[in-house]
DNA sequence: ACAGTTTGTCCTCTCCGTGGAAAAAGATTA
DNA sequence: TAATCTTTTTCCACGGAGAGGACAAACTGT
């Protein structure tokens, strides 16, 4: 069996691969889209076939003449995606078009360190592959919940990932799996996911705000992830909301995360439960011994007024920060993502209300603020997109 | 006299022109920098000479062999730059290398509307040109103090420019002067200026914050101005600093401009003068009948404690907003520019202190915050850069 | 069966760039 | 002053790549 070559040879081939990622096409259709002569196109398609990156896929229906020969990405192409969260690892295997072929989520604490977490991920990936789905991998994309030096391929001073600082995740995985690897921040990964298959398909400049254990923001400029000079752009969790706000783990006071991070929500919920303000939460506290952000979500979904008020208050804080960022960045779309997606509508309404009121009218004039479309799979799709873009480029 | 053609014919020529903008070079030197064969390079240089865009400039000193023939941008190339401020218009004529050949500043109220202001600018420009400096113009760049739709070439809903909304500045000037024209926001223009000849020469991602009548921010991503989807990116004057702050002209409360804009400074100064807190300011008020932001500046420069306190307080507010933006954008440099440049050190110290304390350590680790290097000429150099980049591109 | 359409392949012609060779112009040394 | 070495520039021939036309293949509809 011929080994699939790693890379296209030139920019034309890269362009063709990206086009074919959106589905099979006939040579004639490709010729309509790409500004290449028929002969040149035939040559490049031939080369890509020779490289094993694309293959024939039968004949299309006739449009009144000779039936077109359809080409598609090689069905043997396989990308792996690893989305490392605070308390779990999502692993997936996709084909060349990033369609998910297999998916698994393993509970796993990121604080156990890179060795433990990566071996859980590799084992899960091994199980998926052993189903005969992927004999060979052509790339692996990784997302981690903290700042990353994209250039160097490792996390840098990640607050919730002790032991990961400068651990060469990219190179270790590339060596272990014998294929190209890339690592990026989890919000950037999600932004890529929504750009490839979600709400951001047609937008070039947008923000994706993820609200979870921490609060982060993916920045897309001209269709590309913007990472900043140190790779920590979008780290908005510690932007000041108020001087006289609660103390934050970062040492300052009044940070956004001190109002609406996972820990802050849990604290507010426990207070509400103890003071007797919320029956739902008190009951849950009695059951579980302690409360988490998720409990606030379920209570709110069940209609608990206090939980809804907590979320609404948090949404207002996020909205305040976001209003400033919208004025500054003037995006074409804002996507809200993260664990609280289920009760998104309360949150969304509050965020919208603040942003539309406090941002520059010119910036909000035609600014949709929506929830993420992709659910659990957003991260892994984005991770696959990250590495596929790299492999499919020259 | 042969007319200088408008544009290079291909990307190679554009590249050569941009290289020559930094000074004359011999063909051999160009060959070392550009990845072109000697023959190809000779052809392109020949074409550019034929087009009248470049010309021979004698022989370089020998380096042990035949003396190299130096080429430079045509000495007949002329760009015009118009920097429209709130109360004055700066006009300049530059050569192809953006060196300023003539410069004039005319007092002029932007509120008089586009017809009045543009005729002042055109008249001033005419005077400069009549000195025999510029028989022919190859482009004109314009900066205005308000949001601009760069694509359409006109201001959009500019708050301090009544009558300018959607007035087709670009097309009117292009027609009047018979050359290509471009219009952009004044902060973007200044960012271009500092990038071409100031502190930002070696930085690809940075912010330029201008503090003047309004407060605005130029955003540079990967060496290019980022304008946002509506062209109003960087409009940070109305970002919320505090909920219970002073009322702002925009209708909200606690905006940055309500603390530290031109009007806010004047108001605080008059209060200080009336209450007798500041002798300097009271004296000035008695003289002039009213106070402006500039008076605060001169008082502070003279050592007036109240004025310094006002500036320090404003610097803190700017720092608070900037701290958030630094965490979000993770720039490689922050440049502070604007009318208060003279007393920059107090302001700068305050801004630095807040940003370094409140932003993400990873983002501030290697982040210089400096004053703009270019003074009065920053705007016009940037405007010239804007149009020259356009004319020199394909 | 034949005309019209669409698709794919082949072939030739032209253009462009590479790289070598030679020429030009000057420095250095005998 | 002549000869040799360096550096720069021009000239030229060869090779490769792409554009576009011609033709063949495959299919529809009359």
TrEMBL record, chains A, B:
Keywords: Membrane, Transmembrane, Transmembrane helix
Alphabetical list of PANTHER family matching this protein: GLUCOKINASE, ROK (REPRESSOR, ORF, KINASE) FAMILY
UniProt family annotation: Belongs to the ROK (NagC/XylR) family.
Pfam families in alphabetical order: ROK
Transmembrane segments: 321-348
Family annotation (InterPro entries): ArsR-like_HTH, ATPase_NBD, ROK, ROK_cs, WH-like_DNA-bd_sf, WH_DNA-bd_sf
Domain of life of the source: Bacteria
Name of the molecule in the record: ROK family transcriptional regulator
């Amino acid at each position: 069996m011929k080994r699939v070559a790693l890379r296209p040879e030139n920019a034309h081939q890269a362009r063709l691969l990206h086009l074919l990622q959106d589905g099979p096409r006939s040579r004639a259709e490709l010729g309509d889209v790409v500004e290449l002569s028929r002969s040149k196109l035939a040559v490049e398609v031939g080369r890509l076939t020779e490289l094993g990156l694309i293959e024939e896929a039968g004949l299309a229906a006739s449009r009144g003449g000779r039936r077109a020969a359809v080409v598609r990405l090689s069905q043997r192409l396989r990308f792996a995606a690893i989305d490392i969260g605070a308390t779990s690892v999502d692993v997936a295997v996709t084909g060349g078009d990033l369609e998910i072929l297999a998916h698994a989520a393993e509970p796993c604490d990121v604080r156990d360190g890179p060795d433990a977490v990566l071996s859980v991920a590799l084992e899960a990936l091994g199980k998926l592959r052993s189903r005969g789905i992927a004999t060979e991998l052509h790339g692996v994309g990784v997302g981690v919940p903290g700042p990353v030096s994209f250039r160097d391929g490792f996390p840098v001073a990640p607050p919730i990932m002790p032991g990961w600082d400068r651990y060469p995740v990219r190179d270790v995985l590339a060596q272990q799996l014998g294929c190209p690897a890339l690592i990026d921040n989890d919000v950037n990964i999600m932004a890529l996911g929504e750009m490839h298959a979600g709400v951001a398909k047609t937008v070039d400049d947008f923000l994706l705000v993820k609200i979870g254990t921490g609060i982060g923001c993916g920045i897309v400029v001209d269709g590309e992830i913007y990472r900043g000079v140190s790779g920590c752009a979008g780290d908005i969790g510690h932007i000041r909301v108020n001087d006289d706000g609660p103390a934050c783990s970062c040492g300052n006071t009044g940070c956004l995360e001190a109002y609406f991070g996972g820990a802050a929500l849990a604290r507010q919920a426990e207070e509400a439960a103890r003071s007797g303000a919320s029956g739902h939460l008190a009951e849950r506290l009695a059951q579980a011994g302690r409360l988490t952000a998720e409990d606030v979500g379920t209570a709110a979904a069940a209609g608990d007024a206090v939980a809804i008020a907590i979320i609404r208050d948090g949404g207002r804080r996020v909205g305040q920060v976001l209003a400033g960022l919208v004025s500054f960045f003037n995006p074409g779309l804002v996507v809200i993502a993260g664990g609280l997606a289920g009760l998104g509508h309360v949150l969304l309404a509050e965020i919208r209300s603040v942003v539309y009121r406090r941002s520059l009218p010119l910036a909000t004039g035609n600014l949709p603020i929506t929830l993420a479309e992709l659910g659990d799979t957003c991260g892994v799709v984005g991770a696959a997109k990250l590495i596929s873009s790299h492999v499919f480029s020259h």
